[in-house]
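In this section we walk through a basic example: taking a raw amino acid sequence and producing a predicted 3D structure, encoded as discrete structure tokens. The instruction is simple. Fold the sequence below.
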Amino acid sequence: MTELLAIIAPLLLIDILNPVLLAALIYAAGSSRPIANSGSLLLGHTLAYLVVGLLISIGLEALGERLANPEPVDFLFEFLLGVACLYGAFASRGGSVSEERNPEGELTPFKCLAFGVIINIISAPFALPYAAVISQIVDADLSVSSAVAVLSAYNFTYALPFAAVPLSVFLVGDRAQPVLQRVNALMARVADMLMPKVLLLLGLWLLVDAGYYGMTGQVII
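The resulting token sequence is shown next.
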């Protein structure tokens, strides 16, 4: 478990580098119902992330000993994910990875909840670290209950930094907007600069991990 957490922790930091979600939260925080709308958007995004992970875990549970005894097909998935990361690294070199995408029309909590789910689709490059987390959990020697616990803790921890948006609006109201806008601009610049490099390193690691299993039949962690 310690080795798994050592791999998941940096992936979490990479995953949090999501200016698309942050920009959408700040946009919702500037609406007529800032706390309800931004909170609903974050809830929708978090639930979607968690449900995807849990569905995968439930599917693995149906395969009995799969979690405790990973099979070659699991590492084939990891290899393909590594290739996807390398493709994402080269595709995002133009500096447009942080392009903002916001819903149109008047915002409501329900609309923001749904848009939080959609964020998982329109910010696909940022989902690759999460997919890598799931891959590493599948490859580790974990029980199903432990895998679900790790995924749940991961998603809760992921949401914490973004919860600062509705919390700051709750505490200081409209005065939080200039600070949030500066933070968003900074994260967008950092994401445009780092994301191609991060995806490149992540892709290489996944290819090495899958290749090691293919050559030795053993897992690295």
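Looking at the output, two observations stand out. The CA atoms of residues 124 and 213 lie 27 Å apart. The chain has one domain: 2-216. In the next section we compare this with other chains.
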